[in-house]
Amino acid sequence: MTFTLEGVKDEAIRLIGAAQTGGINLRLIGGLAVKLRCPSAGHRSLERNYADVDFVTDRDGSVLLSEFLVQMGYTPNKTFNTLSGDHRQLYYDLDRERQVDVFIGDFSMCHKIPLQSRLKADKITIPLAELFLTKAQIVEINQKDILDLYALLLDHDIGSQDGELINGARIAELCARDWGLYTTTWITLDRMAEKLESSELLPEHRETIAKRIAALRAFMEQAPKTTAWKLRARIGKRVRWYELPEEVQRT
User: Fold this and answer.
1) What's the order of all strands across the beta sheet hosting 88-93?
2) What is the dihedral sign for C-alpha 98, 88, 36, 192?
3) Which among 122, 211, 137, 214 is positioned nearest to 174, based on CA atoms?
């Protein structure tokens, strides 16, 4: 029997390493991915708990996923995986009451973030641009997600490439294709800016984040918009522009 690790960060790294050995491209997303990429996530003003683990894999990896995670000590949610396994799968570490949520190919919640072709850009997490968008695309965003976004902007400058920069060009490209994603991301940036002054961050840290919010806005504004984007913009907010995320229950 394979025993899981108590520390959620150590367990996530164990799974990624074992998946790589087994030929599965498994990458971390969510708050734990932010913690791994952002030293500031451990600061008292941004720190939060991480209970579960969220991953994404490609479609080839999804074929191997069930056998792999069972071998690693996890129990599948058979009902959910049968119904939704082509785009999302759930597994549980029953002893530690920990959930593993795996998205297949794309991250789909309020909006769809394509990831299938981007999983090899980093060895542990998805690229910072997409990691930012998986948080920014939340319509009813909560405080912990705002803190994750602050940590990302505090520790990583905005640029036009991947690595340790948040690729503003990639964010702008995805938002220029999808008016709904653009709109929600813009609203999230507004909320981040509004909450910044009342945060517990140091003044110089608030200034850094504010400058990077402005840099992201500039990328998004300047990117050429698709015809589909322009047509959807004419309708505006009269019609709901986001999906309602599916709720999943532990079994």
Assistant:
1) 26-29, 53-57, 98-104, 88-93, 75-76
2) negative
3) 137
Reported as a single tens digit per residue, the pLDDT across 80-110 is 999 999 999 999 999 999 999 999 999 999 9
Q: How many other CB atoms are there within 10 angstroms of residue 70's CB atom?
A: 13
Tell which residue, 136, 243, 129, has the closest CA to residue 182. Answer: 136
Among 126-135, 141-150, 202-211, 241-250, name the one with the lowest average pLDDT.
241-250
Backbone torsions φ then ψ of 178, nearest 5 degrees: -135, 100
Give me the DSSP letters along the chain: -PPPPSSHHHHHHHHHHHHHHTT--EEEEHHHHHHHH-GGGGSTTT-----SEEEEE-HHHHHHHHHHHHHTT-EE-HHHHHHHTTTEEEEEETTTTEEEEEEESEEESSSEEE-TTTTTS-SSB--HHHHHHHHHT-TT--HHHHHHHHHHHHHS-EESSSTTSEEHHHHHHHHHH-HHHHHHHHHHHHHHHHHHTTSSS-HHHHHHHHHHHHHHHHHHHHSPPPHHHHHHHHHGGGS--S--PPP----
As a whole number, the mean pLDDT across the chain is 94
User: What is the pTM assigned to this prediction?
Assistant: 0.94
Residue 251 has pLDDT above 50, yes or no: no
Contact predicate 83/14, CB 8 Å: no
- How far is 135 from 152, CA to CA, in rounded Å? 10
The two three-digit tokens of residue 162, written as one number = 């991947």
Alpha carbons 175 and 180: distance in angstroms, whole number? 8
